[in-house]
Amino acid sequence: MARAPERTGSLGFESTLWEAADLLRNNMDPAEYKHVVLGLLFLKYIEDAFEERREDLAAAVADPDSDYYVADEDERADELAELLEDRDEYTAENVFWVPAPARWSHIRAQAKQPTIGKAIDDAMDAIERENPALKGVLPQVYALPNLDKHNLGKLIDLVSGIGLGTKEHQDKDTLGRVYEYFLSRFASPRARAAASSTRRPASSGCSSRCWSPTGGGSTTPAAARAGCSSRA
Question: Which residues of 99-134 are buried (b: 16+ CB within 10 A; e: fewer)?
Fold first, then answer.
């Protein structure tokens, strides 16, 4: 029997990510601050899965053994361009469709602009419109005046270098582990003590079904975690 992927222990970047995120806090209410950080991580998670699917489609069009194969190179380019923007090719594989204005490359290109907060809010709104499972649940708080846009740009750059939503990282539950690390930092010492005495170890309770278009139930980071806990 194959050994299950390792899901325990430090990932090696949690504290660095927390320190960068903590720069955003300023005078923000903790509830608002939590949504800012976890919402950004979730956005990167769905982008990673989306980009991995794009890579799979590109490989399939060039693979003679694939149903998508196109022998003629000129026709192949046209076919690939069409496939990459076919929403059904993503949702059929349980991947959220990410419209062009909401893609991470677009967001990162604006990370140093004073309008980055609005750009992220617009991205969240666009993703909700395209994915019914996310309608009305993604945080749109990035344009708040008390959110430091310079430090938000720094956090985006840091998150850009972290894999969260590829199959490899889903198998490792990277997002779940980062999420639980952040929750432990958001919680008060009393809350952390209570949680440690009652919750199950690790984060395997939140599987990929909670973070997918057809997972059933809420799919925001906080709601997904709560939903998984109740079903585990």
Answer: eeebbbeebbebbeeeebbebbbbbbebbbebbeeb
Residue 18 CA to residue 1 CA, distance in Å, equals 37
Distance CA 5, CA 73 (A): 39
Can you tell me the distance from the alpha carbon of 70 to that of 62, in angstroms, rounded to the nearest whole number? 7
Which positions of the chain have pLDDT values less than 70?
1-10, 27, 29-31, 187-232
pLDDT of the residue at 203 = 33
Structure tokens that stand for 162 in this block = 């972290």
pLDDT tens string 139-178: 998 998 888 899 899 889 888 988 899 999 999 888 888 8
Question: Residue 73: what pLDDT?
Answer: 84
The CA angle 85-55-122, to the nearest 5 degrees, is: 50
Check: CB of residue 18 under 8 Å from CB of residue 182: yes
User: Position of tokens 């278009």?
Assistant: 213
pLDDT for 100: 94
Q: Which CATH entry fits the domain spanning 14-188+198-231: 3.40.640.10, 1.10.760.10, 1.20.1260.30, 1.20.58.410?
A: 1.20.1260.30
pTM higher than 0.70: yes
What H or E segment, with its residue span, contains residue 202? none
What phi, psi does 176 have (nearest 5°)? -60, -40
Q: Report the alpha-carbon distance of residue 86 to residue 91 in Å, rounded.
A: 9
Q: Using an 8 Å Cβ cutoff, are 214 and 193 in contact?
A: no
CA distance 155 to 17: 8
Domain boundaries, the chain: 14-188+198-231
